Amino acid sequence: MNTTAIPVARLASVVKRYGALTAVDGLDLMLHRGELLALLGPNGAGKSTAISLLLGLVRADAGQVELFGQDPQQLVARRRIGVMLQSATLPPTLRVGELIRQIASYYPAPRSVQESAELAGVTDLLRRPYAKLSGGQQRRVQFALALCGRPELLFLDEPTVGMDIEARQKLWAAIRHLIAEGCSVVLTTHYLEEAEALADRVCVMARGKIISEGTVDQLRARVALKRVRCITRLDIAAVSVWPEVVEARRDGERLWLSTASAEALVRRLLDADAQLSELEVQRAGLAEAFTELTREADASAEPQREAA
Amino acid sequence: MNAVISTLPTTHADTRMPLRRVIGAYLEEARAECLRYLRSPGFLIPTVMLPTVFYLMFGIVLGRANGADAPRYLLAAYGTFGVMAPGLFGFGLALSMERDNGLMMLKRALPMPPGAYLLGKMVMAMLVAATVSVLLLLMATFMAHVPLTAPQMLSLFVTDLFGVLPFCAMGLLLGTLIKGQGAPSVVNLIYLPMAFLSGLWFPLSMMPKLIQQLAPVWPSYHLNQLALSAVGLGQSASWPHVVTLLVYTVGFVMLAARRLRKFG
What we know:
Chain A is an alpha/beta fold and about 300 residues long. Chain A is built from eleven helices and 13 strands.
């Protein structure tokens, strides 16, 4: 009965170094059945390394990596996953149908070529050689290859790069269909709206660690905050305890405040300091919140590096 | 109790693979690999054309001028020359390219049976080697009128067919060492000089002493000695050459496996 409690994928205190570079630095990650986890982060944050660890492509220097409670380097564990990598050149002279047939043969109970093609929306391309397809079509074929083995866990690395809006939405619909069937998904993407449209849970990575984790709503809540900047004599310690203030910090002579109610905060600031100047109020978009999150992580890592 | 159990999420259809499907995966991989290269003129034309056209020119058109045994000698030599290419290019070059373009990484992430990748490429190389061998035998028989007995033909065919394997192994090792744009020239820089130095284009007896003494270093020299024996021009016992080729094959594979484990 314990089998039901085993997470689909798990990283526990994982460390991976490449020479002097620590790509993944004490990473903890857990994925459950039927869940879509979006992994976000700037380039070099350690997303690809995290995925490579879960796929068994690289071995961790420390910590535990498990797929269905097993070592990902075990073939039996990987028979339950489907993979769509960001950069893989498939044999150009093979036809789409032949590619699906080839990849499906690796799995114990795969979908038929027809079913895979229908799910990925490539039925009209089955007889075409891979090299003759457009970038977006090739991406859809790679998606068909990822799902043809009837996987319980899908790895999708930037799946919609190069797709037009319509194709992207079709792919999203297909992903939702698979999740409804109980499939779990690990998604990495640069498109925040993609994470927003699909993810149950979002993990933001920076410098090999997870710096923010939560539901899309929770991330959005952070985004709903507004940023107030001004030059003031007010003491940061005093301001940071105001109920309107979520977060306060000082940047040179400026005070930076995050708030959910900008109007109330601005009124209070002006009342408290008549000489206040350079007042700015900004709305943070999803992308800005994301950049902000990762920049905060960078800033907090700075002193440590200097100490080291 | 039963009700409780049935509400538990079913642990997925078993991930054990029936033997029939495992074999199926190997066959599919080999099939895809063969199809892929048969449709790729950039690979197939040079590998099949080079030895056959050379044989036509030097073995048949100019052959008699070089002595009565020249067409027979060159049948063996161009056979050897012909089977080196699918091993070195079909295996080595393909591997280095696939390490470069991400296909290798995708296949390692997928649950492909470990040997299927190598076996698929091996089958493809053997198929091309067999084609070259048959074409040369047909040309020798019908165009050069080399009198060959059936056992001689069969013996040369089998030598060529399995003779591709040491070069697959060598290609495998090369594929783990070289990467990127320069890879084709590197393979050619090994392939062509090695063919020349093994006496495949001109008999070793016409070459300087040093080259003659160096010849046993090259795997292609040993394969050529076996091919010469097969067509009745053997000068020495076959078994030392067979053993040498086996040692080369195992050595190359072991070195390649070590590099693959280390660097992927």
